[in-house]
Amino acid sequence: MILPIVAYGDPVLRKVGAEIDKDYEGLQTLIENMWETMYNANGVGLAAPQIGLAIRLFMVDTSPFADDDELSEEEQNQLKNFKQVFVNAQMIEETGKTWPFNEGCLSIPDIREDVTRNDTITLRYQDENFKEYTETFDGILARVIQHEYDHIQGVLFTDKVSSLKKRLLKGKLTNISKGKIQVDYRMRFPLLKKGR
After folding, report:
1. For binding Fe cation, which residues are annotated in this chain's numbering (predicted)?
2. What local confidence, expressed as pLDDT, does residue 193 receive?
3. 148 annotated active-site
4. Residue 98 sits in which domain range?
5. Measured in whole angstroms, how far is the alpha carbon of residue 149 from the centre of its chain?
6. Is residue 13 part of a domain?
């Protein structure tokens, strides 16, 4: 089932997600619905807060990035084959050089900004069967994971741009929260007046 994606301005996007366990009701159905929702919106990642749930769950499928001709064959293969659910993720370390990359977000449509992040991360997480992993990721894969991890920490990519950029984006962000935007996927707007 395709779920509505929560728009910028909804308080759930600012909450730190709670950990879940294998008794979390309807988890497998939720994961299936999140995959369907993400693909319907042409996303490469989706976090539970973006569908209104303040829990530590997100997913990533980087296959759309695999067509980038500027990447090495090894990088293309890594991105083409990476599809993962992350449960109860905890960032262990962010290392390596920092680099800017143009990011967008399904909860903040029509806004893209350069965000600087570390190129290597180490993450402890569980998969949807609650098997635990500690893995290191780098490059675009690390970036996508960092973006989704931020969501379960109550952080948005617009928090990471300069204060000048934030001021310039304020009007657009307000319009998004009021539903004054055209998108081709289902959204839930926090400030949309009833009856409009």
Report:
1. 105, 147, 151
2. 57
3. yes
4. 5-181
5. 7
6. yes
Q: Is the pLDDT of residue 59 over 60?
A: yes
190 in any annotated domain: no
Residue 192 lies in a domain: no
Query: From the candidates 32, 70, 74, 148, which is the catalytic residue?
Result: 148
Contacts of residue 89, defined as CB under 8 A and 6 or more positions apart, other chains included, come to: 56, 58, 123, 124, 125, 149, 152
* 66 has a pLDDT exceeding 90: no
Annotated binding site: 105, 147, 151
The annotated binding site for Fe cation is made up of 105, 147, 151
105 closest CA partner among 4, 2, 1, 6: 6
How far separated are the first and last CA of the chain, in Å rounded? 25
Give how many domains the chain has, as a whole number: 1
- Does residue 21 sit in helix, strand or coil? coil
**pLDDT averaged over the chain?**
94
| Length of the chain counted residue by residue | 196
Torsion of CA 140, 141, 144, 147, to 10 degrees: -100
Given a cut of 90, whether residue 190 has pLDDT beyond it is no
Which CATH number belongs to the domain containing residue 45 in this structure? 3.90.45.10
- What would the pLDDT profile of 141-177 be if each residue is shown by its tens digit? 999 999 999 999 999 999 999 999 999 999 999 999 9
Q: Are residues 27 and 20 in contact, defined by beta-carbon separation less than 8 angstroms?
A: yes
pLDDT recorded at residue 195? 41
